[in-house]
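Weekly sync, protein design subgroup
Attendees: M.S., D.O., the rotation student, P.L. (late)

Item 1: inverse folding check
M.S. brought a backbone from last month's batch and wanted to see whether the design step gives back something sensible before we order anything. D.O. pointed out we never logged the input encoding, so this time it goes straight into the notes. Structure tokens as presented (371 positions):
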């Protein structure tokens, strides 16, 4: 609210006033709001539409309340009084005041829109910067492991993402793989994602087994971020010398393992509870032997939950068929084929969830001992 022509004492009192559009007792403001037209008061000290204490405090005698209308909607009101003089407002004066009110409404709304535009511009800049920072946490390159191909994809549904993947160089030529999906969306999920990624990486370096690394990361997540968010995650370790991949799954989508020599696709379903739900969790751990040509796909539910115009899901079965049909391709080409198939399936439907994939493939002429 703004006031002009008041002495400092009355100005301070005016700033404390409230003018509800609806009230139990009738008022000039509720009347104006109801009829969307000026309300003229000639005898303020006795008129039921004016609070008598207000009339006495401001020496009101004759006043008019005009609506500030913008595109057919009332966005405020302008009140003009004659001070202690009892002279009524003429029709011409009310008409002039309505013209001023209309101009004021346009000016106020334009100022509000400009302010919102500036806020949006600043938020867009900050989100863009947040996306750059978040993307910098993703691996800048894929590990080079003789006898193996590694590929990945990361597609956020918004400016920032709750998904991530990571590669971690370990001792003896081993490589750690992690992929995770935070339960929420937007900036809160992005912040939780950074915390989860950092803790898994730290625990992966210090803990000897995948399940120990995830279990310890879970306890630290709960201690550092007591929120209602959680993250599903997989952490696995490739030992290229023995061609073994050991993984632990904390409530995440089960990886798909295709073995062309057996023409067999296996869903690695063993999993425990997600990270950030409760303390002292115990997660299962599984070790598989990768034969030449074997392909392992880790993914988030942004792949399988993608929907088309008929609200059908892409689904795990369709993804499994794709892996089996195109596992002969190089790892990156397989990732590209899955992305292409998801885009073709969803058509004009906008991506609503983050999408992340990691593919590990043992080359047909891999040097590790076959198992």
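Designed sequence read out in the meeting:
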């Amino acid at each position: 609210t703004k006031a002009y022509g008041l002495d400092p004492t009355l100005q301070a009192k005016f700033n404390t006033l409230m003018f509800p559009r609806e009230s139990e007792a009738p008022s000039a403001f509720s009347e104006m709001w109801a009829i969307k037209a000026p309300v003229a008061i000639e005898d303020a000290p006795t008129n039921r539409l004016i609070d008598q204490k207000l009339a006495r405090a401001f020496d009101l005698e004759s006043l008019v309340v005009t609506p500030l209308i913008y595109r057919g909607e009332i966005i405020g009101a302008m009140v003009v009084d004659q001070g202690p003089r009892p002279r009524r407002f003429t029709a011409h004066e009310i008409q002039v005041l309505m013209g001023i009110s209309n101009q004021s409404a346009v000016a106020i709304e334009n100022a509000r829109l400009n302010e919102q535009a500036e806020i949006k511009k600043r938020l867009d800049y900050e989100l863009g910067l947040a996306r750059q920072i978040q993307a910098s946490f993703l691996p800048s390159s894929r590990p080079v492991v003789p006898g193996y191909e590694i590929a990945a994809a990361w597609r956020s549904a918004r400016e920032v993402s709750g998904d991530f993947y990571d590669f971690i160089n370990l001792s003896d030529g081993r490589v750690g793989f992690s992929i995770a999906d935070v339960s929420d969306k937007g900036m809160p999920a992005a912040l939780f994602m950074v915390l989860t990624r950092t803790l898994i990486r730290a625990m992966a370096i210090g803990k000897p087994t995948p399940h120990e690394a995830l279990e310890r990361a879970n306890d630290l997540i709960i201690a550092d971020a007591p929120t209602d968010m959680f993250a599903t995650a997989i952490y696995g370790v490739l030992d290229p010398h023995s061609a073994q991949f050991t993984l632990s799954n904390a409530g995440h989508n089960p990886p798909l393992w295709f073995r062309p020599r057996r023409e067999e696709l296996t869903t690695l379903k063993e999993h425990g509870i997600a990270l950030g739900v409760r303390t002292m969790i115990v997660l299962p751990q599984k070790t598989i032997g990768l034969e030449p040509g074997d392909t392992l796909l880790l993914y988030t539910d942004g792949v399988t939950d993608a929907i088309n115009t008929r609200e059908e899901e892409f689904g795990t079965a369709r993804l499994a068929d794709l892996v089996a049909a195109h596992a002969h391709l190089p790892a990156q080409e397989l990732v590209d084929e899955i992305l292409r198939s998801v885009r073709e399936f969803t058509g004009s439907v906008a991506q609503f969830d983050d999408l992340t994939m990691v593919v590990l493939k043992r080359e047909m002429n891999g040097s590790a001992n076959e198992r």
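Discussion: The mean pLDDT is 88. The longest helix spans residues 91-136.
Action: P.L. to compare against the previous round before Friday.
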